[in-house]
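Exercise: predict the fold of this chain.
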Amino acid sequence: MKNHTTSISSSLAFLWLTYIILASNSNLWKLPHLDSKFQLSEILFLLLFPLSIPLLKKIKFTPIDYLFLGYASLFIINVFLHPELNVLLEVSGTLYLVSMYFLLSRFLAQVPQIDAYLKKAFLGLLVFACISAIIGYLLYVFDLSTRYVIDYKDYPYLGDIVRWRGFSASPNMLSSIICICIFFIQSSAMKPLQKWLITLLVLCIAAMTFSKELAAFFALLLFMLVIPKLFRRLPLRLTLPYFGIVTIVMVALTFFVYVPKQLETNLNYDNKQVIAHEAIFSTEHLDVIPTSYYYLFQAAKTFITRHPIAGIGVGNFQFDLKNLKKEGGYPSNIPIYETHDFYWGQIAEIGFTYFIFLFFLGWGYIHLIKNEAGIFNERYHLFFVITIIFILIESAIINTQHYRHYWIFFAIVNNFYLRYLDKE
């Protein structure tokens, strides 16, 4: 009986490790009706779910648990406010990720050698993501498939580019996976030479995503490397302003393209599916032209004012955007997109009750920075703070709601909270 229990535990550890490593796999194939929503990870979770349910017998709730239970509740309520198949499917995807977070955090809290396990998980995730990116590009080069790259023509500042994404849903998702893995590596106990060798190698792949988030990554990596040398504890008065400045810069870089009027270059800015026809602001030497991100933000504002209480329904953003486009409230030249952020787009879909979640999210993050109870050791604390800043910044310019690797990250954070509660 004892050997059987150990075998089950080892099998569960292997399955969860595999699940984490496959987190970047969000675009390997498309299925009828489900599109790319059902991948290898989801198949694996069907096996993990019944095996992990016993972990909930001795359940304790952390503040992070309550935060995500509240988050899930908003989506469940939204189904009753908008009883549509599309809304139900979108909400089901969110509830799956919340369930995964709960089960994974409980499993991790029982792993005896958690440092070694997390090292395997992050390195495995990084290697799989990078290999898939290389494979995807080679398939494109040899004209076998264009599915795993995005070929942009006349991209602002850069001209014609090919953005790598591998098996991830987007280049942004691939770059975010690489970034958080680097944050983990830099905060780990690995030798400095190993840290920087891995970092520099994978940054070459991250660069091929051409993601704006890399600017935020470098700003936060600098903060991560410098601050511990100057302060014994993370200073709240410095961390939050720095976070605010980086966020403003990233939004400014994403919402607008800045074109010098005396531009002597072969690049052109004729790709009007990326930017508007006319500048929103001009000086003697510079035109500031809105991008699709700016107009998605404006559309979200319109939906919020029209449906402040119940929202337009989870997953309905692109459908309401089509109607707004017919009304002339959205540029005719810019394609229809889903919501591209985690804040105003979500408020538009869910309603003002979403502000409650955002308030407690901010409150919880401030307490994480303070770490007054000493829940996290110094190394993990810095990694968690920097990574959450990165997630919050990225969420202002891309919808990270279904980024599987971020839910895995929060399960890792919560596992340390659960260990702390067990000691009390």
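Check your answer against the key: DSSP finds 15 helices and five strands in the chain.
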